[in-house]
């Protein structure tokens, strides 16, 4: 490729749009959007992958006026946001379940800063989120995302992303699925905690000297931890399957 063609107006615009696409992806998708990754590193990764995939770009199909470029840049940002929302909804199944488990165990007030999102979360919630993040790294989710971005270059032209009714329907389905699957993951501990409350209530009626806070709460926490460890493998398999289904939908959509 000659230098004059490389720095032509159309190629420069294509480079900018591709850089915006990778930047939006790394700001929104799980793993890459981790709060502990500096913004400068995310920008460097976006620039690196832009350079890597720049040579495989098809010819730009949009006019090179200011209005068209503004709309195209907004479309690329929307593309990254849409992919991020779909994958984040699948990932946050475990954080929603962790919030329910923390509430039932009485750990709602024991919070710490979650390194993934940078917000305060209960410690059980944070533990499950970090385990899920390690499982997704072991399953090469970061490679899936880069592969998806490379495939989208051919299937979704730069500046040509459109929000479809199918995308809206899947996001609504993902939000509903987050609550349903989250409750399903938390159900064993929730059910046992409710059963323990019934048993402790009966004990307090028969033995008024029974101190619920001194004896009952440690028993509830211990039983909940045992159930949590027993169901941890199945829980991580559910999270991985949710991420797989979200990725499969993105492949069909793009």
Walk me through the structure.
This protein has 254 residues and is an all-alpha fold. The protein has one domain. The protein contains eight helices and two strands. Strands 1-2 form a two-stranded antiparallel sheet. Helix 4 packs across helix 5 and helix 7 packs antiparallel against helix 8. It is elongated and about 85 Å long. The model has no long low-confidence stretch (mean pLDDT 81).
Main attributes of the structure:
2% strand; mainly alpha; 254 residues; two-stranded antiparallel sheet
Q: Count up the domains.
A: 1
- What best-fitting shape do the alpha-carbon axes yield? elongated
Secondary-structure content class: mainly alpha
Strands of the biggest beta sheet: in what spatial order? Answer: 1-2
Strand content: under 5%
Unreliably modeled segments: none
Q: Count the E strands.
A: 2
N-to-C series of helices and strands = HHHHEEHHHH
Helix content: over 70%
Q: Radius of gyration in whole Å, from Cα?
A: 23 Å
Q: What is the mean predicted local confidence, pLDDT? A: 81
In whole angstroms, the N-to-C terminal distance is 29 Å
Largest sheet, strands/sense/barrel: 2 strands, antiparallel
Q: What count of helical segments does DSSP give?
A: 8
